[in-house]
Amino acid sequence: MKKTLVFYALCSFSLGFSQCTISGADEIQVGERVNYTAEISADDASNIYEWVYLDQKLIPEGSLNEKSLTVKGSDLGKSMLTLKVKSGSGNVKCHKTVNVIAPTTNLSPNSSSCDLKVDAFIEKRISNNTVVFEPVTSETQYSYTWIVTYRNGKKESSGNKAGKFNYSNQNVIDQVQLEIKEGYCSKKVSKVYDTNFWYFF
């Protein structure tokens, strides 16, 4: 009799415990905005939501305590979105892996066969207030134009392969765009930075 009661108790607990998944695209481009939504069994208006992100590849836009969250692709690679949900039937956590890819190549009408081999760039700090951006490529014949947008709206540019710019806690870089050209071919790669990126750089 006791075994039977325990069995039914476990079944009731299992049925009452919420299950959670996150719906949304598995792959997004750098600079692209995508909405992700929690799908929870036994959904309830009293649920408490907490979105968690562990790196700068995805940047949230809006509240982290709603059922849905819009994120922007910021850096290349795979990132993990996590949602913690507290409900009347218990606590549950769900995850979704999102792959952030390079933006679509921009080609001129006469350059359909272009294949510029640059999909990303890296940051290197060369002093406390100076950063250098370098394209990830072994090609040497390309021309480069860097455009940096600061948080206050100011823009600066560089035509060197390695773009060097100043930054500080009061002069934070918000976005970097690299345009690569070879003949009639052109391509743009951009990256958006989270508010706290430069404080820990």
Provide a descriptive summary of the structure in words.
The protein is mostly beta strands and 201 residues long. It folds into two domains: 17-101, Sandwich (Immunoglobulin-like); 121-199, Sandwich (Immunoglobulin-like), CATH 2.60.40. The chain has one helix and 15 strands. A four-stranded antiparallel β-sheet has the order 1-3-6-5, with no helix packed on it. Strands 2-8-7-4 form a four-stranded mixed β-sheet, with no helix packed on it. It has a four-stranded antiparallel β-sheet with strand order 12-11-14-15, with no helix packed on it. It starts with a helix and ends in a 9-residue tail after the last strand. Mean pLDDT is 81; it is low at 1-17 and 105-113.
